[in-house]
Amino acid sequence: MENGSKLQTNKRNSRRKPSWLKRKIPAGAAYRELNTLLDKSGITTVCREARCPNLGECYSRGTATFMILGAICTRACRFCAVTNGEPLPPDAEEPHTIARACSQMKLSYAVVTSVTRDDLSDGGSAQFAATISAIRDAVPRIGIEVLIPDFQGDSTALDTVLSASPDVLNHNIETVPRLYTKVRPGADYSRSLGVFSYAAQKYKGALKSGLMLGLGEQSDEVLNVLTDLLNAGVSRLTLGQYLMPSQSQLPVAEYITPDAFDKWRDTALSLGFSAVASGPFVRSSYHAESLVNIPESKICF
Length: 301
Hints:
alpha/beta; 10 helices; TIM Barrel; disordered C terminus; single chain; eight-stranded parallel beta sheet
């Protein structure tokens, strides 16, 4: 792709989804069974709270991304449907509840994320560590990926999570620096990169990040972000289409074509990423197990 050129897009009205973003939502017996289990356990999933378009597919596969520390976020990112406000105190039983669910769901790989908790002195890092430990106690051979907030750049909080040794440390860079004040007003691009730079010095697991495309970014800006991530130690990458989860969030600026996502996948692999998931419906935890334990070669989906 030429630097400075616009991303390949669908030129239709951004309020009308193109054909490749229309699909049936699976909702069979497996979906209902998992939905019931999660409801009875009182477990929050980012799938539901963020209105993920893959919820039906993932629930039907018997998987979900657990969201700890409640369902209320202290930030108000303009792309996200998660409720913003004043959260409740952390639930001390939550790690064990999640661990029991992992066992009941017979998971071989679990993904745990959280709302951002700037109200907590440790940013919720202790709850992440406790959840990792509880899951490992319940399902000893399970793989664990954590999708963490930036902890406001607090290295002590990051050390707390790293000390629990997750298999994958994921933190989404989300978009290009120019769009941060518009898309992520409570976040900082350099601070997010710093999460990886710091972790890379003392962590032996895989580092992973993701971007949304379709917010108005330019190709050269995306290339610069990919280079920054690689230089910070990130080896796993997800690229997906931003979709407006409700009328309260930012509108879609561009619909990126499937062919363009394929080209971005090839570009990212050629730059040096070891595993890339790139496509309109790709999200940071979508088929997350597929990006783990992969030979350092051209593996992608």
